[in-house]
Amino acid sequence: MTDRDAGAPIAAEGGIETMAAVVQERYDTRPEAVLRTGRLPRPELRPGEVLVRVRAAGVDRGTWHLMAGLPYAVRPVSGMRRPKLPNPGRTVAGVVERIGPDVTGFAPGDEVYGTAPAAFAEFAAARADRIAPKPTGLTFEEAATVPISGLTALQAVRDKGRIRPGQQVLITGAAGGVGTFAVQLAHHLGAHVTAVASSRKLDAVRALGADRVIDYTREDFLAGPQRYDAIVDIAGNRNLRDLCRALTPRGRLVITGGETDGRLLGGTDRQLRAQLLSPFVRRHLGTFIASEHADGLSELTTLIDAGAIRPVVDRAYPLTEAAAAVRHLLDGTVIGKLAVTVPLD
Ligand SMILES: NC(=O)c1ccc[n+]([C@@H]2O[C@H](COP(=O)([O-])OP(=O)(O)OC[C@H]3O[C@@H](n4cnc5c(N)ncnc54)[C@H](OP(=O)(O)O)[C@@H]3O)[C@@H](O)[C@H]2O)c1
């Protein structure tokens, strides 16, 4: 593997076609220490896969977890000692270059979006059941930010939260990647949405349809008399007792995320406790791992095409600055999502 400029054209090296890509060889919490641009062989297609010419990739918390190998609970999947995949990009938007054996429903030239391993590269091999036609009204960089955050929000708000018109809903982490979709979805479903965010992000969540906003840096968002039919808890790691108290007697708590410094489990111990406690209380306490599938992406496409939801892209970085994009994600200033764009040859 050579280390040429990421913008260099695809070339055959010793008979192998290569591509510009972000390359990561070990785990580290510092993106600039481990993410460099270089060249990799173009991915081989297995049955059921589609080769996507990547136009943009998304950046999210999962990108960081895969890059850092933290919490350790991710390593049985991501690689025990070093990353199994050449880079931590996970979501793509691009154009179908080639279809593999046993793939129907896609053809070269189709514009698609979805999830794919090692997405910080000129090409990615995506499972055909994890991509869908790209929403026509979105740019590639907008579309690339949707798959994981949008699917997570859809499953949290609609499927786990079972939010119905007129319900009172509280959403924490409302200005983040998942939260910006969750606020719009809850509003679209007719709920009265209370969104929690820090001071400079309040206007943004209001603009997405929040009926009420709470600045958690100034006010305890669980302290007031309000009781919620559903709490979609995306950030903050508040304890379960406080969250339960803020629910109506039959309310639903959907623990979606929450970052901690815990190197072994991250915030997942709180999620496990909620699952264990739920059968013993009247309120429903739950958590989930978002499933990535084409049907959900098609539902998001319908919602986006109808104008019900849209991605909020804070900034896009070129592929050569993927490390700066992940660093930006960590600094706490991002509203919505970040993208990495891939140069065309
Ligand atoms: N269950 C799943 O399958 C699944 C899927 C995707 C993501 N996740 C998890 O969901 C969480 C959010 O992901 P994301 O992509 O939305 O992350 P993100 O884009 O970084 O957004 C997180 C948001 O949380 C807010 N926040 C940070 N500390 C907070 C605190 N103490 N109290 C309240 N809000 C706080 C941040 O903004 P402000 O503090 O400035 O308001 C930020 O907007 C992560 O833990 C991620 O791992 C889970």
Automatic annotation (TrEMBL):
Gene3D superfamilies, sorted: Medium-chain alcohol dehydrogenases, catalytic domain (3.90.180.10), NAD(P)-binding Rossmann-like Domain (3.40.50.720)
Matching InterPro entries: ADH-like_N, ER, GroES-like_sf, NAD(P)-bd_dom_sf, YIM1/Zinc_Alcohol_DH_Fams
Domain of life of the native organism: Bacteria
Domain Enoyl reductase (ER): from-to ranges: 33-340
Signal sequence annotation: none
Pfam family, one: ADH_N
Stated name of the protein: NADPH:quinone reductase-like Zn-dependent oxidoreductase
Originating organism: Kitasatospora paracochleata
